[in-house]
Amino acid sequence: MNTEITGIIFIFLTTLVLSYPLGKYIAKIFSGDKTLLDPVFNPLEKIFFRLSGIDASKEMTWKQSLVALLVINAVWFLLSMFVLMCQGWLPLNPDGNPSMTADCAFNTTISFVSNTNLQHYSGESGTTYLSQLLLMLFQFISAGTGIAACAIVFNALRERTADKLGNFYNYFLKSCTRILLPLSIVVAVILIFRGSPMTFDGKDTTISMQGDTLNVSTGPAAAMIAIKQLGTNGGGYFGANSAVPFENPDYLTNIVENASIFLIPAALVFALGFYLRRKKLAWMIFGVMTVCSLILIAPTVYYEMKGNPAIEKMGISQPLGNMEGKEVRFGPAASALWEITTTNTSNGSVNSMHDSSMPISGMNAMLGMMINAIYGGVGVGFLNFFIFIIIAVFISGLMVGRTPEFLGKKIEAREVKIAMIIFLIHPLLIMTGTALASGLAAIDAPMGWWYAGNATGWLNNPGHHGFSEMLYEYTSSSANNGSGFEGLGDGNPFWNITCGIVMLLSRFLPIVGPVAIAGLLAQKKYIPESSGTLKTDTGTFGMMVFAIIAVLVGLSFFTALALGPLAEHFTLFAK
Amino acid sequence: MKRQRQSKLFEPALVKEAFKQSFIKLDPRILFRNPVMFTVEIGTAVMLGVCVWILMGENTQGSFAYNFIIFIILLLTVLFANFAEAIAEARGKAQADSLRKTREDTPAKLIQPVGELYMDEIIVVSSSKLQKDDVFLCEAGDIIPMDGEIIEGIATIDESAITGESAPVIRESGGDKSSVTGGTKVLSDKIKVRVTVQPGESFLDKMIALVEGASRQKTPNEIALTILLAGFTLIFIIVCVTLAPFADYAKTSIPISAYISLFVCLIPTTIGGLLSAIGIAGMDRALRANVIAKSGKAVETAGDIDVLLLDKTGTITIGNRKATNFYPANGIDENAFIKACVLASRADETPEGKSIVELAYSRGVQAVTPHGEGHNVTFIKFTAETRSSGIDFENTRIRKGAFDAIRNLCKQAGNNFPNETAEKVRIISSNGGTPLVVSENEKVTGVIELQDIIKTGIHERFERLRKMGIKTVMVTGDNPLTAKFIAEKAGVDDFIAEAKPEDKMNYIRKEQQAGKLVAMMGDGTNDAPALAQADVGVAMNSGTAAAKEAGNMVDLDNDPTKLIEVVEIGKQLLMTRGTLTTFSIANDVAKYFAIVPALFISSIPVLQSLNIMGLHSPQSAILSAVIFNAIIIPLLIPLALKGVAYKPIGASRLLRRNLLYYGLGGILIPFIGIKLIDLVVAMFV
After folding, report:
1. Among residues B221, B301, B574, B34, which one has the least CA distance to residue A415?
2. Which one of A394, A434, A436 has the shortest CB-CB distance to B224?
3. In sequence order, which ranges of B268-333 are alpha helices (DSSP H)?
4. CA pair distance B537, B535, nearest whole angstrom
5. How far apart (Å, rounded) are the C-alpha atoms in residues B248 and B254?
6. Candidates A400, A525, A541; nearest CB to B575
7. pLDDT tens for each residue of B270-309
8. What are phi and psi of A106, to 5 degrees?
9. pTM of full prediction above 0.90
């Protein structure tokens, strides 16, 4: 078999196999069971709790947890705004990079607090080492926030009636110290050995063959790359992310990094199974996610390896497939796998230029972000999937003639309302954002302070592809993904602020909603299963969830996808 | 003989009324209650505006004829939805009217207490003048003017007007069968009845109001579904509004008619238009089963029932026990024993007592009279204390009664209870029979075996319930051994033996605490608390006013197996909503493929690759989609009214089946339907 194909099958399967034991470990952490790392972390965590005066054994209601979550995120928001806007005169700035503008700092802060890591700046020149360290901290914090929210939902779904759903701070800290930190250390060490820089020295210099002196940016990169992948953050140390040899030196690091993208998200599904002792349910969810993922990966790999008909018409042979915007050391298949996994999981790191992918690949990447629950972001991926489950449970419950229930709790008007609102946010933000930008571009409006020049100026490509670029940018923001189609002139107040608002709304509301539903369900009476209960851990129900995802997402985004990638695809492949 | 309540789906008179109503319901104040159809009405109004605009000289919106046709189709969509609701209402109302007819104005013999001598005076007034707590008199041949409770007397009553059952029933004061219903006829005797309801507030009146929509409240599931549909409507508002700048960017001008057509096609008009009709039809089906539901919620809850409490007598077994065997004790002559049994049962008017005499006759024992009849003969009546009855004459005392009652009687007299009789008692009990021990002068003479006759077909009904996931519980006054035997034979899952009224209540509480929904049927006043406690309490129409007040449904047929039908009606109601929602949303796939390529045919011709149905032209594509969207509503009215058939094949299989029929079918059918309509439309465009 083609080694490229073998390579991606290996990456995909290995990750899924590894996610199973990791899921078991995460379930232990959530349950507070003993683990191997206790002697190392127990004293450390005790210090944290003593310093902050938090009693980790005190259980909180879902509302208290959400308040805690939002308050600490607000504090980080302010801290980050301060550091980014003052980085120029703060320490750890050997390259003398300037402070960020307010709108760029706003976008960057939200971007990192919201686990999006949409970067409208380039790491080499836009930030200092202090800022990079701060952003790295946020990569832990935002990932930990997501995992902690997920833990609260797991707790709420247990077989009982309860108000108190564990301690948020405890879940949060343990997610960072017990899950993210150890794995990051492992990944970072592998990267360092393969050549990623890890230093606080300033730019390195080297003499090129022509005799010119080159200044090469370095810094504490390996540590950041590890957590950007594991925490589904995606914010690279360097502008071109994991396409840069410093970030992703060779195929081995590519395997490790690509696996890190969806390892924890997949593991969390198994963690649900172990934690609730409902392994079949976990397999159902895992099955639906994996089927969705394969449906998106297969055509992407096919079109990337097939090559571009426009180049073929020019008489150029493409033995490797579509190599535009790709790294030779990875090739089209590994780039395609990365493109889909990174968009499925709200990670957003890239190892190729998505703008140069085939239209169908670009569409599949966008579909992954539009669904945003195929494994999904750490913690939040499951929360999004939970919303689809609630809607599926409701409709299928009616279809079998019984008031819908999920895990022994009745799904009623309030839960349906929240689920529907949370689902609506995503298409609302993506479609109105794209409508705003494309509407402005259509009339080529002068933008004033928002953008230097007229609106069409931010498009590097006209027509369908330009439309895809704008659609992708908002989809990526709303999915808290952070990858860019690039090619779009997004480093300006218009894009910084609109995308910032989109990221903010689409981060916290979709956490608040599912936690609220779970909290409300937890308070309800537990109804043991009877033979009339619709079982949610079956293939049939899996089909139902799949159908709901396909139909809801398809119906919401059909027009946009038809005018962007589909129109481009049919044009490109027109006979 | 049951009266047939099946009428054709579309009776001309009802259709005429519904037709009129569908126009009246265009009033936005009425339509506002249904957000989906309300938005369609707004769309229709906008199209009317566009038509007027074109007549005034606007020329960018296409031809007047085309726009006007779209306007007409949209108007028809709203009218069809209104018609669905109206026909459901009309059918329900017709059903209720046929019941109401039974209580047309009848003369009532109102009793008025006069002075302190308690001499009652009777004045004849119209039944409509009767107030709550008035007392009236009914004699043989009278029609009972109003629902009430017998306070004095006993009568046979012909209730066929209500139940369709021609055999007369006995109603008497005091017991659990003291209720009479207006419109029924007294056949014999004389009763005094106290009116229990205010005029216009009887259960039937309430039901009619529910069907007519005046007091129809949305049920919890209906509210949740409305929210879901409103959510879908919002998604498509976003899709259609954002399409304008998208189209501007693609340098395409889209006429208003196309936006509105796309929007109306996408929002779930099919389910939105049929939703209230489905709810009304559910109530109507309950009424057709002769069950009056006090709220739509009760019918819906019935579909969720986990536990069903059923009285043994009358539900599982036919009426009462019958004597099947005489077992004389050792050394007692069989013939003499049977004679003693007959004597002991002479004054026993209970069905059991009569069956003993019947059995004795069939064994060839002729009428027996106690020695010295007319002299010292005393009949001993059954009391709860002695738990035995019998006869005393001369020097003979014959008693028959429960095993332990007779044993105590004999022991007190110093006589032993013979072992072989005790053994017989045990065998009878464990075979589901009821042993009745007979003693003569405090010495045991033998046992009579009484047996329950289990209704034919009841086993299959319980099997069906089990497949639905419902646990059946038999409630009986029998001892645990007998109860267990019958429970096993009939196929119920659990039983409450030696049940006292509070046992039912406790059982219901226990199940509810475990999160189960419980249904029960009852008639007596002492059932009232349990009926109120149960999630679905079905009171028999013959039951006491207290029981009827406590329950949330009243069964006019007094048929204890009716609960099973009620459960199925509830399930059907939810299923019909669920499947039509799925169907409605699945339809959108084809509509997208019809309309989107049509919108961009001039600016992005490559999108014709999405025109997989090969529709004739943009106009015909849009028209076909809108027409399909409109006519699917009347086509589905029969399904909405009859309900989706419920099959107890397990939830997962049922889901798979409905997903295949209504999900996959919902995706495929519009592709075929729109293509066919397009073939026809293409001939005109």
Report:
1. B221
2. A394
3. 269-288, 296-302
4. 6
5. 9
6. A400
7. 998 998 889 888 888 888 888 888 877 888 888 888 888 8
8. -60, -50
9. no
